[in-house]
Design goal:
Elements (H helix, E strand, L loop, with lengths): L13 E2 L11 E8 L12 E8 L12 E8 L12 E8 L12 E8 L12 E8 L12 E8 L30 H4 L6 H10 L7
Parallel strand pairs: 1-2, 2-3, 3-4, 4-5, 5-6, 6-7, 7-8
Protein name: Quinolone resistance protein
InterPro entries: 5peptide_repeat, PA_immunity-related
Pfam families: Pentapeptide, Pentapeptide_4
Length: 211
C-alpha cells in the first residue's frame, strides 16, 4: 500500500516548541524542532504543519483536538499524552514512544507508525484510512469501535490488543504476532491471517485439530 508522505520543503529554520506561546492562533509550521521538552502542559486546538520534530518530549501533555498535517516525528516521546479528538494526516511517527497515549475519537489519513512503542495506547472510536503500522509494539492497545480502511499491521506485536466492534475484513495481520486478541468472531471475518494464526483462532473456538 502506498502512503502519501509528509510534504515539506528542505532547509527548514530551527525553532523551539515553546515558540507556540507567542502565536495567537497556536500554530507552528515550516520549521524543524530538536530536543524540545514540553511535559505536563495543556494546549488545546494546536495546529502543526510542515514540521520535522526530532528528540522532543511531550509526556503527560494535553493536546486535545490537535491538527497535525505534513509532520515527521523522529525519536519523540508522547508517553501518557492526551491527543483525543485529533486530526492527523500525512504524518510519520518513527522510533517514537507513545506508551499509554490517548488518541480516541481521532481521524488518521496517510499515517505511518514505524518501529514505535504504542503499548496501552487508546484509539477507540477513531477512523483510519491508509495507515501503516510497521514493526511496532501494540501490546494491550485499544482499537475499540474503530473504522479501518486500507490499514496494515506489518511485523507488529499485537498481543492482547482490543479489536471489539472493529471489523478486520481485508486487514492483513499475517506477519504480526500475538498470544491472544480481544475480538468477536463476526469482526474477524475476512481478516488475512497466517496458518499458525488460524490454528490459534481455532483453539479460541474450542476446536481440536488432529492430523
Amino acid at each position: 500500500m502506498k502512503i502519501d508522505l509528509p510534504r515539506m520543503p528542505k532547509d527548514l529554520p530551527s525553532k523551539n516548541f515553546h515558540d507556540i506561546f507567542y502565536e495567537e492562533d497556536l500554530e507552528l509550521e515550516m520549521c524543524e524542532i530538536k530536543e524540545s521538552t514540553f511535559d505536563n502542559e495543556v494546549l488545546n486546538k494546536v495546529r502543526l504543519s510542515n514540521l520535522v520534530m526530532k528528540g522532543c518530549k511531550f509526556n503527560n501533555t494535553d493536546f486535545s483536538n490537535i491538527d497535525i498535517t505534513d509532520v515527521s516525528f523522529e525519536n519523540c516521546d508522547f508517553s501518557n499524552a492526551i491527543l483525543k479528538g485529533s486530526s492527523i494526516h500525512r504524518t510519520m511517527f518513527k522510533n517514537c514512544k507513545l506508551l499509554g497515549v490517548d488518541l480516541t475519537d481521532s481521524r488518521f489519513g496517510n499515517v505511518q507508525f514505524d518501529n514505535s512503542l504504542l503499548n496501552l495506547a487508546s484509539f477507540g472510536n477513531s477512523k483510519f484510512e491508509k495507515v501503516n503500522f510497521q514493526e511496532n509494539s501494540l501490546e494491550s492497545t485499544d482499537f475499540y469501535d474503530c473504522r479501518f480502511k486500507k490499514v496494515e499491521f506489518i511485523r507488529c506485536n499485537i498481543n492482547s490488543a482490543n479489536f471489539e466492534k472493529t471489523s478486520l475484513k481485508g486487514i492483513d495481520i499475517s506477519t504480526s504476532n500475538f498470544e491472544k486478541l480481544i475480538i468477536s468472531l463476526a469482526d474477524l471475518k475476512g481478516c488475512k491471517v497466517s496458518t499458525f494464526q488460524a490454528i490459534q483462532f481455532s483453539s479460541l473456538l474450542g476446536l481440536v485439530i488432529t492430523d
